[in-house]
Automatic annotation (TrEMBL):
This is Tetratricopeptide repeat protein. Residues 1-19 form the signal peptide. InterPro entries: TPR-like_helical_dom_sf (IPR011990), TPR_rpt (IPR019734). The lineage of its organism: Bacteria, Pseudomonadati, Bacteroidota, Chitinophagia, Chitinophagales. Keywords: Coiled coil, Signal, TPR repeat. Residues 406-452 form a coiled coil. TPR repeats lie at residues 121-154. Gene3D superfamilies: Tetratricopeptide repeat domain.
Length: 460
């Protein structure tokens, strides 16, 4: 019994000394003697038996928060905030072990209104902003990430009711993007978008994510963020165009056409969607080599024609639509002309009367198609010639329209020349004179188109 009592008496002076040192560290901190307080608390926790006391870790956290807040001392202890945070986590972990009732835990932190954690948060945030403004985006990102670490810890411990620190998360994303770390930027932007956050400029965030995953060939996520963006910013026209482009790049033609049908049902008077849909359908249905066209080529071309005509009903002077419709009809004339050329003598045997008649009919059909196409090319030329400096694409359209008008006229002149030769052989002077007048008009028109073609680059 005496031995046990002696051991207890021997232990008491040590406990008193520990309490005195801890109180001294707290007193020095209260008097703003931060360097001395740091030395004192470090000495306290250098003793192994003292490391099981939550208050010691809490005091260390407060001391190191103070070190981090002092611009002079911080340079000698660059990891002061990290040390303070780890000390706070140890303090709270010990409190959880010590007290089963959550309401009775973390009394010291509660009495301080979580100030040490708030100071760490604001310190990292301020450092991140300083680095960001200085253009050091890697360090800005590093500090914003640590700031978010504090927030997430507080949220996990129910020390804040917020579930997302939107501002810091946004700046972490921007810093990552500016530091050429798009994969990290996507993580932070995604955290914001998944909460359907809305604010000034946030629409661009959803667009960035949709395009980022498009480039990553992740169609599911690209569609996810496009749909979220549409939900939050339904009036922004970007989503429809993006979804169509995504289907064009990553989906099948059937999926693309289905998407266009949906888009047109929602936007029946949008001439650009009609135009783009028509072009997509025509490119699938038409091939210069008829043998390479799909089995439903005629149906597709008919659908493209219908779409482009609807486009022109809404926007009659749209050069691109006039050009495409003219080309569709012109290419039909080319097909007929190819059919005509395929009828030729075989094995030295002359063409039959029926074959000659068929060729004559086909030649007439070619002219009919070319005459049907010409007004659309003329509308293109008239519209674009009246404008000033043209973009390169518009220049090309203007040149192509004039070039096709020249080709059409040359074909018509060629056919009129043949008719004139036949009339001369029959000595039909009146018909010859009439044909010569028609040829002269077409030749003059061809010269006019040629001059315009040659002057496009100079004038525009």
């Amino acid at each position: 019994m005496k031995k046990v009592l002696l051991l207890a008496l021997l232990a008491a002076p040590g406990l008193g000394l520990y309490a005195q040192k801890l109180d001294k560290a707290k007193d020095l901190l209260g008097k703003k003697k931060i360097t001395e307080a740091k030395t004192e608390i470090d000495n306290v926790l250098a003793v192994e038996k003292n490391q099981s006391n939550p208050e010691a870790w809490y005091t260390k956290a407060k001391v190191y928060v103070a070190v981090a807040g002092d611009s002079v001392l911080r340079s000698s202890v660059p990891d002061a905030r990290e040390v303070a945070f780890e000390s706070l986590k140890k303090y709270m972990a010990m409190e959880e072990t010590r007290e089963k009732d959550a309401a009775k835990r973390n009394v010291l932190l509660t009495l301080d209104n979580s100030q040490p954690l708030l100071d760490l948060y604001s310190g990292y945030s301020s450092a991140g902003a300083t680095y960001y403004n200085a253009g050091n985006f890697n360090e800005a990102l590093n500090n914003f990430k640590k700031c978010l670490g504090i927030f997430e810890f507080m949220s996990g411990k129910n020390l804040t009711t917020l579930k997302l620190d939107t501002t810091t998360t946004l700046y972490a994303g921007i810093s990552a993007e500016k530091a050429s770390k798009p994969d990290e930027a996507a993580v932070y932007y995604g955290m914001i978008a998944d909460q359907k956050a809305k604010g000034e400029g946030f629409a661009e965030l959803y667009k960035w994510l949709a395009d980022y995953y498009r480039q990553k060939n992740d169609v599911t996520k690209a569609q996810h963020y496009s749909q979220l963006g549409r939900e939050v910013y339904p009036q922004d026209p970007f989503w429809t165009g993006f979804e169509l482009e995504l289907m064009r790049e990553k989906g099948s033609k059937e999926e693309l056409f289905k998407k266009y049908d949906q888009v047109l049902a929602e936007n029946p008077n949008n001439h650009l969607f009609l135009f783009n849909y028509a072009v997509e359908v025509y490119q699938v249905g038409y091939n210069q080599d008829a043998a390479q066209r799909p089995a439903n080529s005629k149906e597709l071309i008919a659908k493209a024609t219908e779409l482009i005509k609807k486009c022109l009903e809404i926007q009659p002077d749209y050069p691109n639509a006039n050009m495409v419709l003219g080309q569709i009809i012109y290419n039909q004339g080319v097909d007929i002309n190819n059919e005509n050329k395929a009828i030729r003598p075989q094995g030295g045997v002359k063409l039959t009367a029926d074959q000659l008649k068929k060729k004559e009919e086909l030649r007439a059909q070619v002219v009919t198609k070319f005459d049907e196409a010409a007004p659309y090319f003329e509308k293109v030329a008239s519209k674009l010639e009246s404008e000033g400096k043209l973009k390169m694409d518009d220049k090309d359209i203007l040149k192509n329209s004039l070039d096709l008008l020249i080709t059409i006229n040359e074909e018509k002149v060629s056919q009129l020349e043949q008719k004139k030769n036949a009339a001369e052989a029959k000595k039909n002077a009146a018909e010859v004179k009439s044909l010569e007048a028609d040829i002269k008009k077409l030749s003059d028109k061809t010269t006019e188109y040629t001059e315009k073609f040659n002057n496009v680059d100079r004038k525009h």
